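User: Predict OmpA family protein's structure from this.
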Amino acid sequence: MKNLIAFTALSTTILVAGCQTTDPYSRETKTSNTTKGAIIGALGGAVVGALTNTSDGEQAAKNAMIGAGIGAVAGGATGRYMDQQEKKLRERLDETGVGIQRVGDTIQLVMPGDITFATGRAEVTTDFDYVLQDVGLVLQEFNKTIVYVDGHTDTVGSYQKNAELSQARANNVAARLMQEGVLGGRLVVTGYGESRLKVPTGDGVNEPRNRRVEIRLEPYTG
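Assistant:
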């Protein structure tokens, strides 16, 4: 699997060369949507395989980071490390619609489904793709962070279908972060379907606040 992830990263680098656009939020030059589509098509199997291999929980993420030579954050420096990461995220995600919550040394990004995905679809919308690029760049810089990507849905549709949809959405968000250079092993990717509603509702209720992907960031402290 290490070779698979390395191949994915190398192939992505080759594909993105020379095909870029300007991020409307940060004004930076970034990979075009056409190129990203080609990447997903060409590397789909590798990305899914990597995600499947690394979605086994916190310990698997720690093992992957150890294997990649990423050291832990020193205990006394944890707060400052997360402060700096939060500051960078707030700067890049200002006015994007992403909610940023800080509880202790944990940062949570809440990405509402109505601006991230079309109804009933798992593909990230074109406009929001730029946001994930910004998140990926910050996570690549702050590489001593374990990244939990959690997908959630409302109660419209069957329980099983919602579980599958939430997992597909979380996988696509995680894949985009990997395309920005985030180590796949740091990602813990889970689809919760309608089992963790933000706003409790009955069955068959179209509640936008329940359709979301949350990215939870926790420092790797060993």
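Residues 33-54 form the longest helix (22 residues).
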